[in-house]
Write a structure and sequence with these properties.
This protein is of the alpha/beta class. The chain has ten helices and eight strands.
Length: about 270
């Protein structure tokens, strides 16, 4: 078995007015850039910039508006840091422009299925691509999500999207998979996916997990609001890492890094 490694940390920068955990805080590009640079100082390996909230019930944003939100932020970060830039978008035209602005990771919560042009745009994109599972669009995904076997169904979906991406000319070496915690899932579905992360690792690709501050943490703790979910986010990050996640998408980079370092040191001491 390969020795355990710490995961890469992907810090979240939401250039949106309505994200579930930090909406509106970084709507001004200068503030979003400052926030990104703070995340880099705290140890982020990747900064993920998004201009469209995909929280449950969110409505799609006009592509021009999305571009207007993310491009100044990507350019502003690139001017002051060499951190790896990720664009969180479902739209190929946004990914294309972000690639020109320096993004080398396309994080697509629709797994390249939102637009007919997505697969070709991914082939031309100058970097790697995250394929995430979601059941239904953000507007309705939490209405009544159902699965017979959530882990197997999500794994089959991801395998099919990997095959579609490869057929379109995106090599496996450029792909990352993500089970999509909170995207059309109940609390039990989310827990089964985190517990069963090894199944996604069996696809042979890096696994990304985003559970930071998500609703299931609040539901497991008497309805704690998004700004009171740090401890649960850290517990989830450690559990995801222990099950093989190689990239964690988090809002709280410094805290996650510290929690992981302690868990890692204990594991290493036990194996010494
Ligand atoms: N979760 C969110 C957004 N993008 N991308 C990946 N690959 N995996 C995730 O789990 C994921 C994601 C939702 O979180 P956030 O960006 O904080 O909220 P919002 O969608 O409201 O902007």
């Amino acid at each position: 078995m390969a020795p355990p490694r710490l995961p890469l940390l992907m810090g979240v920068v939401n250039a949106t007015p309505d994200s579930f955990s930090d909406g509106g805080r970084y709507g001004d590009p200068a503030r979003a850039v400052d926030h990104a640079l703070r995340l880099v100082d705290e140890g982020a390996d990747i900064v993920d910039v998004g201009g469209e909230s995909t929280r449950p019930g969110a409505r799609p944003v006009d592509p021009e508006e999305e571009l207007g939100r993310v491009l100044p932020v990507l350019r502003g970060i690139a001017a002051r840091s060499s951190v790896r830039l990720s664009i969180d978008t479902r739209r190929p035209e946004v990914a294309r422009a972000a690639g020109e602005a320096g993004a080398t990771l396309w994080n697509d919560v629709s797994a390249l299925a939102f637009s007919p042009g997505s697969l070709a745009a991914a082939a031309a994109f100058p970097g790697d691509v995250v394929l995430m599972h979601a059941q239904g669009p953000p507007e309705t995904m939490q209405d009544d999500p159902r699965y017979d076997d959530v882990v197997e169904e999500v794994a089959a979906f991801l395998a099919a999207r990997v095959a579609a991406a490869e057929a379109a000319g995106v090599s496996r070496a450029r792909l990352v998979v993500d089970p999509g915690v909170g995207f059309g899932k109940t609390v039990d579905h989310n827990l089964a996916l985190i517990a069963g992360l090894g199944r996604f690792g069996a696809l042979g690709l890096p696994v990304l997990v985003g559970l930071s501050r998500k609703g299931f943490i609040g539901r497991l703790d008497a309805g704690a609001p998004a700004d009171r979910r740090l401890a649960g986010s850290l517990a989830g990050a450690i559990e995801a890492w222990r099950r093989g996640a190689s990239i964690l998408r988090v809002h709280d980079v410094a805290e996650t890094r510290q929690a992981l370092r302690v868990a890692f040191a204990v594991l290493a001491a036990g194996e010494a």
